[in-house]
Amino acid sequence: MVSANHRILLAILAALVWVGRGALLGVASLNKLVNHSKHPRLRHVAGPPVSFRIVIQVSDSSRHSKAKTAVVPPLNAEFLFYLFMTPQNCDALVGDLEERYKLICKKFGRRRASFWFWTQTVMSLGPIVWVWAKKVSLKPVVAIVTWAVAKGLVGNDGWLAAVVELWKRVRS
Amino acid sequence: MAKGDNLGEFEQLILVALMILRENAYGMTIHEQMEKLASGLRLVSLGAVYTTLDRLETKGYVRSWFGGSTEERGGRSKRFFEITGSGELALKNALRIAKNMVLGLEAANG
Fold it and tell me: I want to staple B73 with a disulfide (CB 3.0 to 4.6 A). Which of A95, A125, A172, B40 is the partner?
């Protein structure tokens, strides 16, 4: 017979495994995204295994001066999209933003173009993160909350008993 | 018609923009067209456009494909969109309802 403490430990262990798997998948997809990135300010450090590669911003003086003159949208804003979207979708969206950014930059200057870029990024992240959250994390969260409610209501893991108890409480 | 087949206001806007733009419908042009159609009455973000287009593609109202990469986009390819037959039908039904509402209001106000 498994005691309540064991069940809690098992649940925590399962949650840790799930989180660890998510982190590994995240690192893998991030590497994939960076490998596909065509941004001039991104470069890989060669050497360590793929999962531990570090992405750095090029800092040598010649490239820095080149970056200053080139019309390049803010890299940090782009990176936010790469976290929550599929590589192809992300490339299309960032390409659209970059196309418009360059137009605004030509007409109104870099500062206003950057402001527009950041405004669009912040406005766009809401729906994108919501869709991502629904797809990735809502189901486990709902499962954990339901399990916790069931545990709190009836003192055991019986789903049917929990529903019956909940129904009784709602009716009363 | 199932409940999920109904179009929301944002979805209607997107489908109208796709019908106007025809073969030149990709993220940025759709966004610009929607801003024109909304005429400042509602905010349109590019992220919302993409997520809604994905949803419409899942419903079968829109299809998409990737075009070639261009220099002004930093070497990134465009994702083009096109409305399908069922999408047109759903949009026509939604617009008919909207038209009926307007006519009903006009009749009530004399």
Answer: A95
- Three-state DSSP class for B40? coil
* Domain ranges for chain B: 7-109
- How much is the mean pLDDT over chain A? 69
Give the number of domains in chain A: 1
**Interface residue B47 vs chain A (CB under 8 A):** yes
Q: Which residues of A touch B51 (CB under 8 A)?
A: 127-128, 130-131
Q: pLDDT class for B47, splitting at 50, 70, 90?
A: very high
Contact between B18 and B105 (Cβ < 8 Å): no
Flag whether pLDDT at A66 surpasses 50. Answer: no
Is A42 within the bounds of a domain?
yes
Could you give the CA distance from residue A2 to residue A16 in angstroms, rounded to a whole number? 20
Six-digit token pair at A1?
Answer: 């017979």
Full-model pTM: 0.65
Class of domain B7-109: mainly alpha
